[in-house]
Amino acid sequence: MDIYTRATWLIVAIWFLLCMATLNYNGAFFDEGIYVTGGLRTLEGHGLSDRYLSWFGGSLFWPVLAGVGYELGGIVGARAVVVLVGLVALGAVARAASNLFDSRAGFWAALAFAVNGAFFAMARLAVYDALALAGIAISFWAVTELARKDH
């Protein structure tokens, strides 16, 4: 493992620790409350009968994750789940850039992504955006793996 790869994972670790240390910066805002409530009601077996899918595009996957996080640690628990999802997104972007170019590009991509204000804010709020970004980042990484290894 070269120095750029080590530095990349150091950036990812520092980003994760900074996010986790600042999760209790304010109370829940409206969207977080909707997702957590939708997740809790779904876990109780009322997600479909409450017609949450008429509000949420796609599925109840994120609301359920937010509800589980809320059950484990309140709003900070729901936000911790989104930080873990953001960690996956950040790692996948770094690996995809490394696959496309080299470990230096992976380092710079991770650094640029980690200090991006929009990403940092999004990855600390218990809303579905980070899960969508993680899905896109994992897909991008998978495509670069396929192009690199061809199997």
Number of strands: 0
Q: Which residue ranges are poorly predicted, with pLDDT under 50 across at least 5 consecutive positions?
A: none
Which geometry do the CA atoms define?
A: globular
Element pattern in H and E = HHHHHH
Give the integer mean of the pLDDT values.
93
Distance between the termini: 23 Å
Approximately how much helix is present in the residues? over 70%
Main sheet properties: none
Structural class: mainly alpha
Taking Cα atoms only, what radius of gyration do you get, to the nearest Å?
Answer: 17 Å
The fraction of residues in strands falls at under 5%
Specify the number of helices: 6
Describe the structure.
This protein has 151 residues and is mainly alpha-helical. 74% of the residues lie in helices and 0% in strands. The protein contains 6 helices and no strands. The chain has helices at 3-21, 30-43, 61-100, 103-114, 117-122, 129-149. Helix 1 packs parallel to helix 4, helix 2 packs across helix 3 (61-100) and helix 3 packs parallel to helix 6. The longest helix is centred in the middle third of the chain and has 40 residues, at 61-100.
List its salient traits:
151 residues; 6 helices; 74% helix; mainly alpha; globular
How does the SSE layout of this entry go?
Layout: H1 3-21, H2 30-43, H3 61-100, H4 103-114, H5 117-122, H6 129-149
Helix pairs in contact: 1-3, 1-4, 2-3, 3-4, 3-6
Short description:
This protein is an all-alpha fold. The chain is 74% helix and 0% strand.
